Amino acid sequence: MIMAAAAFYPKISVPTIDIAYKTLLPLFGPPAAVIFGITLLSSGLSSSTTGTLAGQAIMEGMLGKKVNPWMRRLVTRFVNTIPTTIAILLGLNPLIILVYSQVALSLLLPLPLVPLWWFTRKRELMGVFTNRRITTILAGIFVLLIIGLNVMLLYFTFTGAS
User: What is the pLDDT of residue 28?
Assistant: First the structure.
């Protein structure tokens, strides 16, 4: 992505992923275009895997509920693929879908930090593994900072402000 930004900004407008690929090809050659595609695929797979594992850990660890692995996989695949497939079939720009999905993820992924911060400060729950006061304070500052920056990102994305 850094290579693409260096290649495209501010000289070239890249409104779609197709154009990004086609622009990389003559600028950096076929290997760069292939690496760009592999990077996008890896990013999607990583995101899907992380979401699945996080959901499993939360359901089994925090809620104490076991879910049939096949049912979990089915639901996860449905949630990951059906909305994207529908959006593409409707002709929506994949780059716009990608940007908005990343904005949503940037807000949703840090939200588990709040209960994690809260539970790790409880001596009756964590016992000897309870965070020290300074760790709890620093973690609270970082949780607020991360969530605050993500709220700013949402504001800038949806209002067009800069």
Answer: 79
97: pLDDT confidence band, cut at 50, 70 and 90?
Answer: confident
Helix axis angle, 17-28 to 30-57, nearest 10°: 140
Instruction: Output the pLDDT for position 142.
Output: 93
- Cα–Cα dist 70/56, whole Å: 12
From residue 57, how far is each of 42, 61, 71, 161 by CA, in Å?
22, 5, 15, 37
pTM of the full structure: 0.51
80: nearest Cα among 127, 119, 44: 44
Q: How many CB atoms lie within 10 A of CB 123?
A: 10
At residue 54, what are phi and psi to the nearest 5 degrees? Answer: -65, -45
The rounded mean pLDDT for the chain is: 78
From the list 110, 113, 95, 116, the residue with the least C-alpha distance to 151 is 110
